[in-house]
Design brief:
single chain, about 260 residues, alpha/beta, 10 helices, about 25% strand, globular
Length: about 260
Amino acid sequence: MTSRHHRDSFDGRAAQYTAERVAPFNAANRLAPGARATERDLLLDRLRLVPGVRVCDAVAGGGFLSEGIHDRLDGDCHIIAVENSESFAATIDPRFHPVVSSLCALDLDDASVDRVACLAGLHHQEDKLAFFREAHRILRPGGIIAVADGRKDSPPARFLNGPVDRFTEIGHDGMFPADGDLTALLREAGFAAIEENHEEYCWPFPDEATMVSYCRDLFRMHEGSLAEVERAIRDVLGVVPLADGRVGMPWGLLYASATRPERG
């Protein structure tokens, strides 16, 4: 599928995320804060967090992953929330130490963190290897990286590069990894003990109206009506009933984790 918008790196798109465009994203997370909880937990499990850990969350968005790290450790951690959008960085809780920085040149010292995490933040990064090399550089020996993003040609990837691209003012032309791509990049960047797998789950919502409003704001699909957004969800992703009476929107990401070797 060819996007109607010019492909660019995430760093190049950062200036397009104005305060007006960031606000709906954060509003969506307030509307249904548990929608992406499973998605986040699957990444947190791979980080093997311990009290007192120092974590780099990149790209942090509005701080969704940072909040999960903080809550899991009851605040016994130091989180550096890296954002290449000044508008997003301005909305991050200052407890998480926001840093405005490119993913290709992280503004952090060598061997200065214990963990690097990236949740759904790589698919607009054309030079993914540069990010993984930077993650290797800032991690202490024995440190862990965990990343997750849409898988190439999966329903979420088709949804983002299809309906989201059509109904979003700035478009969406994500460069999603295929199976094995993250493993290859991590290996080339110098990581070891690499694990990669695809996880499928649902984003749960109390009802379909909340689901549609959430997706419209989260993905800034404001050039489409609520009815058009609902139809796109049904056509590409589907909607399933959950046992507790809620509705679920099927989703899934490719997860990978690795360790910086003690030597090298």
